[in-house]
Amino acid sequence: MVLALTGSSQVGVLTDRSAKAAMEGRQDKVRQLADFMTLYERVKRQDSMAFFVHSKPLAASAELDGAIEYLHSTLRNKFEHFLPRGWSIAIDDLPSVIQRCVSAISFLALESNNIFWYENPSKEQVEGLIGDITKKVTTL
User: Fold this and answer.
1) pLDDT, tens digit, for every residue of 5-52?
2) Would you call 33 helix, strand, or coil by DSSP?
């Protein structure tokens, strides 16, 4: 999401406060990355993604929104902001959540037309990695 939203000014990935300070030329504030769900909402908006003539926003569905929310609130935040405790994760829904999230990653990386792959990794390497993940998830 960060790569797809960066653009040349790099304010598309910042919090509103940081973006405003950057646009005003103020360097007195530490720039802060917008939170995960804000970035997700932005990649779905045409005005946030329209950097080039062929740029496209992510066309989300209720299923994708639910998968992203699950990834964020149930998995990512509990790992990122870890507190010692007992925790169990139902794995029945994980393959479909992963498939939906990988489809969003694939679109943003390969079809949004906002990311240019030259090397390290190349576009072909990214396509291969996405293909590998997709194959592994479909066999679960």
Assistant:
1) 998 888 999 999 999 988 888 877 778 999 999 999 999 999 999 999
2) strand
What span, in angstroms and rounded, lies between the C-alpha atoms of 135 and 129?
10
Domain ranges of the chain: 2-138
Q: And the tokens for 133?
A: 């993940």
Q: Which two tokens stand for residue 10?
A: 């790099």
Q: Which residues of 38-69 are buried (b: 16+ CB within 10 A; e: fewer)?
A: ebbbbbbeeebbebeeeebbbebeeebeebbe
Sorted by sequence, the CB contacts under 8 Å of residue 129 that are 6+ apart come out as 121
pLDDT band at 81 (very low <50, low <70, confident <90, very high): confident
Name the β-bridge partners of 46.
Answer: none
d(CA 108, CA 101): 11
Tell me the C-alpha distance between 140 and 126, whole Å: 22
